[in-house]
Amino acid sequence: VAAIILSAVGDEFAITHPGHHLDHGQLLVVIGGPLLFLLAEFLVFWRFTGSPLWERFAGAIVLLGIGWAGLHADALQTSAMVTASLVLVIIAGAFRQRRESARAAA
Fold first, then answer.
1. 90 has a pLDDT exceeding 90
2. Residue 10 · residue 30 · CB < 8 Å
3. What angle do CA 50, 51, 56 make, to 5 degrees?
4. Residue 18, SS3?
5. Which of 16, 48, 41 lies closest to 93 in space, CA to CA?
6. pTM, rounded to two decimals
7. What is the pLDDT of residues 57-79, one digit of tens each?
8. Which residues contact 53 (CB under 8 A, 6 or more apart)?
9. Is residue 10 scored above 90 in pLDDT?
10. Contact 59/88 with Cβ under 8 angstroms?
């Protein structure tokens, strides 16, 4: 729930002031929501299945890099980078599922 709230607040920053640079607190919120979600999903899945979702962990690492890059970008650019990284996590997850399904069918 915290990740969803942080994400909503971060989106609000990006929508209301797209051309402005984010201060450190705002940047933490924009990055923090998706970061918290990916790390929580990684840990919960690992705990319950014993098999971690490495694409979620890699996405969290990418978000940390975007946090650094966000210091030099405006709110819209930072939000776009966050969105792109989440799309890549989704694509990587889809490929992982496809591989696991093919392996199970064989």
1. yes
2. yes
3. 130
4. coil
5. 41
6. 0.88
7. 999 999 999 999 999 999 999 99
8. 41, 42, 45, 46, 93, 96
9. no
10. yes
